[in-house]
């Protein structure tokens, strides 16, 4: 906030009578002669009698920025008599007090009511599908992947004129998720290779200009969205798969919430100002603290054979990967010159704006679950 200057330059006549005597070159007092009439004098008004004023530097106050006192110094003194014909000086009116700046409330930066409402709705859909029928949750992942690919390829074409083929990406991405759930990691890798090949072939139906740029963006999109999302399906295949997926989702959401709450309230030191100016080091510490506490509780009470210290490590890893994933998508959006990937979710942006932390965290959580409690 810029500070305002409350002062103002002194107005003309503020200092009272002139300290420099009569004006140089002024006509002498007395009758004036009209050059066109000859010696006939013209009517003039008599000049007022100007009292003698001591030159500056005598007994006066040398601080010319302070107004002269217009009244006696003590209550029992009488003001000096004014010469005849000179109006008494008026006491300068005190300048009004400067208005105090109104304190501004710290804004959260987004529509919290809409964000909370959408978050609760998504959470209800995820939990219901996760614990009722696993196959339904696999379908939820596939739908999220297809919508995310549509948002990403649309922004690439709008902002960079990059035409990554959406049809092979959408079909291959959905197949990748299903293959990971049905056939495990081998099925996910096979589907990824076939999707990349389909992107190369599909783009051949158009002119060769920008072929390399378009297929490179297509392969990147296939890896970034559906392949990373496949690790959620891999977590789901375990006997306690729904609880593993729920733990992964809770830790990611808690990490994001801790970073947002602590950074908004206490954040002063920027984490990566050239990538994401809103993120702070204090927010990162909040993400780590919140995620580690939540991880210890989840591993102790939700995961079979899990212990609290494993949850601390899991929470630390989730906070780090979620932050890096958020920064990674911020780099993409900054390169594209956009704020959000879409507008599908009020208060959140698009699907990709919610998947940015989840996608890179999924393989990290899957690997730590396998190391700590096995794949079964």
Automatic annotation (TrEMBL):
It is found in: Cell membrane. GO terms for molecular function: phosphatidate cytidylyltransferase activity. Keywords: Cell membrane, Lipid biosynthesis, Lipid metabolism, Membrane, Nucleotidyltransferase, Phospholipid biosynthesis, Phospholipid metabolism, Transferase, Transmembrane, Transmembrane helix. One of its GO terms (cellular component) is plasma membrane. GO terms for biological process: CDP-diacylglycerol biosynthetic process. It is an enzyme of class 2 (transferase). Its EC number is 2.7.7.41. Pathway: Lipid metabolism; Phospholipid metabolism; CDP-diacylglycerol biosynthesis; CDP-diacylglycerol from sn-glycerol 3-phosphate: step 3/3. It is a multi-pass membrane protein. Residues 1-110 are annotated as: Disordered. Its main location: membrane. The keyword Lipid biosynthesis applies. It catalyses: a 1,2-diacyl-sn-glycero-3-phosphate + CTP + H(+) = a CDP-1,2-diacyl-sn-glycerol + diphosphate. The keyword Lipid biosynthesis applies. The chain crosses the membrane at residues 112-130, 136-152, 164-182, 188-205, 217-237, 243-262, 283-302, 358-375. Belongs to the CDS family. PANTHER family: PHOSPHATIDATE CYTIDYLYLTRANSFERASE (PTHR46382). This is Phosphatidate cytidylyltransferase. It comes from Streptomyces acidicola.
């Amino acid at each position: 906030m810029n500070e305002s200057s409350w002062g103002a330059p002194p107005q003309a006549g503020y200092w009272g009578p002139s300290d420099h005597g009569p004006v140089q070159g002024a006509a002498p007092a007395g009758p004036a002669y009209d050059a066109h009439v000859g010696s006939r004098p013209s009517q003039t008004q008599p000049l007022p009698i100007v009292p003698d004023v001591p030159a500056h530097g005598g007994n006066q106050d040398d601080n010319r920025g302070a107004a002269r006192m217009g009244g006696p110094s003590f209550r029992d003194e009488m003001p000096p008599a004014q010469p005849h014909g000179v109006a008494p000086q008026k006491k300068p009116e005190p300048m009004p007090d400067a208005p105090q700046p109104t304190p501004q409330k710290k804004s959260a930066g987004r529509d919290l009511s809409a964000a909370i409402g959408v978050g609760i709705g998504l959470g209800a859909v995820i939990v219901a599908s996760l614990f009722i029928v696993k196959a339904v949750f696999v379908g939820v992942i596939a739908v999220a992947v297809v919508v995310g690919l549509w948002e990403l390829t649309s922004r690439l074409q709008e902002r960079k004129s990059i035409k990554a083929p959406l049809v092979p990406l959408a079909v291959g991405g959905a197949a990748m998720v299903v293959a990971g759930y049905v056939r495990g990691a081998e099925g996910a890798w096979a589907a990824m290779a076939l999707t990349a090949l389909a992107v190369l072939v599909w783009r051949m139906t158009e002119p060769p200009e920008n072929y390399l740029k378009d297929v490179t963006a297509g392969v990147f999109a296939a890896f970034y969205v559906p392949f990373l999302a496949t690790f959620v399906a891999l977590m789901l295949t375990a006997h306690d798969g729904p609880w593993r997926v729920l733990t992964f989702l809770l830790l990611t959401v808690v990490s994001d919430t801790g970073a947002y709450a602590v950074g908004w309230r206490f954040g002063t030191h920027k984490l990566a100002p050239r990538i994401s100016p809103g993120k702070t080091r204090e927010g990162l510490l909040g993400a780590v603290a919140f995620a580690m506490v939540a991880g210890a509780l989840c591993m102790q009470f939700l995961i079979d054979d899990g212990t609290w210290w494993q949850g601390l490590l899991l929470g630390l890893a989730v906070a780090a990967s979620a932050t890096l994933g958020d920064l990674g998508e911020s780099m993409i959006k900054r390169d594209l010159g956009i704020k959000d990937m879409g507008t599908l979710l009020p208060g959140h942006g698009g699907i990709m704006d919610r998947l940015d932390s989840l996608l890179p965290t999924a393989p990290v959580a899957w690997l730590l679950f396998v190391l700590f409690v096995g794949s079964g």
